[in-house]
Amino acid sequence: MIPQLRDWYQRYEPRGFTIVGVHSPEFFWEKLADKVRGAMQKQTIRYPVVLDNDHTIWNRWGVRAWPTLVLVDRKGVVRFRHIGEGAYAETEAVIRRLLEEQG
């Protein structure tokens, strides 16, 4: 999923698309900010990533699996949700539609 996120961010960020990654660690060693920063650098992730060590964001958004992708419009309304890998063409179609809606 990360290659697609990088691509969408590069392609659509100039049009107002924003990605906020949320890292909800499964293991204790994944909780260290330095480890997350290192992984971001290694994978060339340029969008912001929030460290959700206590799973507050995970729980608030009702996430139950890695990865979960949620597209939210400018009004804060969830417009698309996908659990797991795949559905990249469908996801990109929703991104394009939401960007067109903004005008």
Task: Describe, in short, the structure shown.
With 103 residues, the protein is an alpha+beta fold. The chain has a single domain, classed as Glutaredoxin (3-Layer(aba) Sandwich), CATH 3.40.30. Helices cover 40% and strands 17% of the residues.
Describe this structure in words.
This protein has 103 residues and is an alpha+beta fold. The protein has a single domain, classed as Glutaredoxin, CATH 3.40.30.10. 40% of the residues lie in helices and 17% in strands. The chain contains four helices and four strands. It has helices at 2-12, 33-42, 56-60, 88-102; strands spanning 21-23, 49-51, 68-72, 78-83. Strands 1-2 form a two-stranded parallel ribbon. Strands 3-4 form a two-stranded antiparallel sheet. A hairpin with a 5-residue loop joins strand 3 and strand 4. The longest helix has 15 residues, at 88-102. It is globular, with a radius of gyration of 14 Å. The two termini are 28 Å apart.
